[in-house]
Amino acid sequence: MARSRRQQVAVGIVGLLVAGGGYWFWSRAAATAPAASNLVGAGSKGPSTGTQAPTPDVHLDALQAARPTPDQMKRNLFRFKPKPVPPPPPTVVVSRPIAPSMPSGPPPPPPLSPIPLKFAGVVTQGAVKVAVLIDTIGHQIYGKEGETIEGRYKIWKIGTDSIDISYLDGRGRLAIRMNGSP
């Protein structure tokens, strides 16, 4: 037991020495710490040497002077001026051509539907050429130059590889080629 008591006293002394040394070291480091960067010194740029900066001059007579009246002030921080009115946009004059007047009268007739016949070929009977046409169903129709076909179409001219055909009244005249395209 005597040994344990001795060990306890030795550990206590070492602890006090460590605590005292730490206190001495930290208090000394705080005393030599550089000055804070937000403090303005009187010309000192390095760490403070323990001297205080001189106090600024206070002009008490300026505090007692007469204050300007509101009409003398040119600027009020708490009031806003309305924004100036922007200049009007430049006027652009666009001259549009005057549309010709529409003739008054009956409306024009509807457009003609295409002729639904295909030119299949030519059959020669002596000196007369006969055109062979095929309708949309697939029926063969024969006709000579100047003849009326199906009561709606007139053959104007028969060539070797094309045919000129139109409606009975002469409207919609077109040339149909041998492959069937107009």
The gist of it:
With 182 residues, this protein is α+β, with helices and mostly antiparallel strands. The chain has helices spanning 2-31, 60-63; strands at 118-125, 128-134, 140-143, 148-149, 153-158, 162-167, 174-177.
Structure explained in plain terms:
There is one protein chain. By secondary structure, this protein is α+β, with helices and mostly antiparallel strands. It is built from 2 helices and 7 strands; from the N terminus they run ααβββββββ. It has helices spanning 2-31, 60-63; strands at residues 118-125, 128-134, 140-143, 148-149, 153-158, 162-167, 174-177. It has a 4-stranded antiparallel sheet with strand order 4-5-6-7, with no helix packed on it. It has a 3-stranded antiparallel sheet with strand order 1-2-3, with no helix packed on it. It is elongated. 5% of the residues are buried.
Specify the helix fraction band: 10-25%
Poorly predicted spans: none
The side-by-side strand order for the widest beta sheet comes to 4-5-6-7
Cα distance, first to last residue?
A: 129 Å
* Global Rg: 58 Å
Strand content: 15-25%
Helix and strand element order: HHEEEEEEE
So how many helices? 2
Please state the average pLDDT score.
79
Largest sheet: 4 strands, antiparallel
Please state the overall shape, judged from the principal axes of the Cα atoms: elongated
